[in-house]
Amino acid sequence: MTAVITGLGVISPFGAGVTAFFDGLCSGRSAVAPITSFDAASFPVSVAAEVPAATAERWRAPGAVSDAHARDRKVGFALAAAHQALAQAGLVDAGPGPSTAPSTAPSPAHGLEPRAGGHAALAAAALSLGLGLETALLEDFAVLGDHIDWDTERARALAAHAAGERTPRLRTPADLAARALRAHFGLGGPQYLHMSACAAGAAALACAASLIERGRARTVLCGGTDSMINPLGLGGMARLGATSPRAASDACRPFDLHRDGLAMGEGAAMFVVEDAAAARDRGATALAAITGWGSTQDAYKATAPRPDGAAAVAAMQRALQRAGLVPGDLDYLNAHGTGTPLNDVAEAQAIAAVFGPPRLPVSSIKGAIGHAMAAAGALELAACVLALAQQRAPGTTGLRELDPLCAVVALPPGAHPLRLRRVLSNSFGFGGHNASVILEAA
Amino acid sequence: MSTATPRAVEVVALGCADPRAPIGDDVMRSGPERMALRLMSRSAVLAYHAAREALAGAAWPDLTEAGLFMAVGASGSDLEQLRRILLASQGERGFTLARFGEQGLRVCNPLFAFQLMNNFTMAHTAILTGTRGPNAVLFSRGVGTLAALDEALAALRHGDCARALVGAADSAVHPVTALEHTRWHGELADAPAGEGAAVLALAAVDPRAGAPEPGAGPSRWHIASVEWSEGGAPRPGAPSRAALGIADDDAVVLHGWRADVAAELATALAGRAAPAVSVLSLPDCLAATAPLAWAEALSRAPATCHALAVVTADRDGGVGAVRFVRGAR
Amino acid sequence: MSAALTSSSPAVHHAETVRLAVAEALNLDPATVGPDSNLMDDLGADSLAFLDIVFRIEQAFSIEITRGEMERAARGDMSAEEFAPAGVISERGLERLRELLPEGGAKIAPGLRATQILSLFTVATFVKIAEGKLTGGAQA
String of b and e for B152-172 (b: at least 16 CB within 10 Å)? Predict the structure, then answer.
């Protein structure tokens, strides 16, 4: 069994759809700009790569502003990207997508109502989704006052539940986007909800390929969705010192000598993955094959990468081994490339350890669209699918002067026509999760 | 790395943070744990406690290639930090984002962020024990934990790793989580809320080879199957015995029952050759419920029991079964 | 130096506050933390521990210590470019370090990178930073 991608959908800071996304990446332009989705003027970080307001509004799960599924940006992103992917795979009718026919108001179980009309394959389809954290609804916490009496709140919640009323939500459920996807598209198979931070999106694709290979599922909707561009998410990352202190469009400069931190991003990339033979039989077009994947743990520090890069090296080697390839077979590497001082140098050393003297073209798209956290790996693999299709690789937006300690062939900003047959994408998460995935032209 | 022979997966050891015997964090006061504790949520402490016990039983000499597959629940942060943040974010007319950005964030210890990232429930165990192999951290509210076991089995059977820890840690008593569950489900009469963790140490074995894993006890349980159906909409209807992989003569252990699901399952299990069905009444620990039930059932199974199906359900209506058999079959 | 000061002097009070903040952040018995303890080598601090230490000192003294101010503790008013062109600290930068962070001792040597500055910090370094902040605040 070989897992192939037959549908792809993207919501990114360059807007809705794969064309806007990939053209944006190839333009050398950064989508990092002053934050508009909330007033971040007083925050230590005031820029991010946001999904444009018009796109976010268009795809926002419908409902009043107090509904958690509407306030959690990653839910709408996932629905919209999944619709694109399923439509391309021929598993739902192409059309304007989820938000045109408003969902019913959330039930007490905060689900969306099931929708008819999907392909029969969806009833048994698995879901493998990289998910970010719950979104804390600080305003809801705030109305509870300075000293929250949890017993009183619980009694109030019980009474409200009995009366069918709503009380403050405090935070969105971590699996809200998965619930929305399952309900909206009628997915009835098993689900695998990856919480491995910045590696989650890549882990979700690797898991999907494995599910096909081992026969656990015939069709998998997979990908990643996230937004931490909310007060607690943005504030927390800034407090950790992970974000660049500069409020500039080049806040994130992967592999650059003067890099000083990441820029926050958001979005979703969703894929339909199925067995190559089954896809061929039903007349679906394979966009790329997922042939290799590997995951390891740094088991080192909470945030700092293992300086010798040994676990990152092992993840890439495991992916190559699984694909039955040697390092020389690869044509392009999409780096995790966060633009933080420690990550980029550790990753460059790991790449050198696997691929030898600099030859392999490498780029990071985080200078253009920021770090979309749990969605980052999925967005980067979406870029790899499009690179294979268009035979051009996106450069490293924001890179001007290569750090001599980063001994990689870092592609400068812009588009790079290349002969691309096999590509690898790295994702390394806070907590030490490493995931590498190899895609091959179908 | 892949092997031609399909490999069986053996349970080598168990570790628990038992919800009935509460675990303090005093176990963390020395050694490398000392530095980690300030970053750890309650669930992270419980996970490490269970993993350490499982590893002590397994006595594996080297963890460099060992896998770690864990299910986790919601983040479970320290509420005192949150209270401080909210207090400092109050303007004359209550909470404002401007005050939060200026003052609220400043009174918050930056390390608070780590308690909000639920992947660290698993990551601290890797950092403190040194497991560096294949891994997954999956969200679960109950049967989602079976997906973590399924991923671990796939990695072991494929030969991605020869040894792996798999389990979950979670708390249903964290005030925010408890409040959320009350909002969704109302009063829960069937099982009290608790917190806990359980971890199994698993090893891939060639069923034809003789040498057992070091530390493998006389029980020699193997995992035969993992099957589940998700709760929530759309629910494909009552799970059948066949869909859950339960054999006619399995001893069946049930845990975590919602009355409506229990009734469905009673119908599914009716007419079996072996009527023995035991019911466990551990507190509901969300993601940790299933592995706590596996550990409890395995350690209490009589020597005469050769096949055991542990069936768990969750508050969303998900149902799943893990089938354990003695010896490699 | 501190032996000449009386126990009620502000300087002793500041040093003690910093020492306790470090001990608390690192979960250590305060008796094991001295003014000359190197935070990384002697006390096992990592980059996250630095965040925690800075936070506790900020809270204790009601001050704010920015990333830039930590850097200035090492290079004074020298520009980042002059201090460490291409990331490696220059000869002039090393001289400046010996002046401003003498506690770095033999670690201040050619090849030292700007990203390794924190490895020079001792408990006393943070006392200096905090006191600089407090004095600056009083003059403002």
Answer: bbbbbbbebbbbbbbbbbbbb
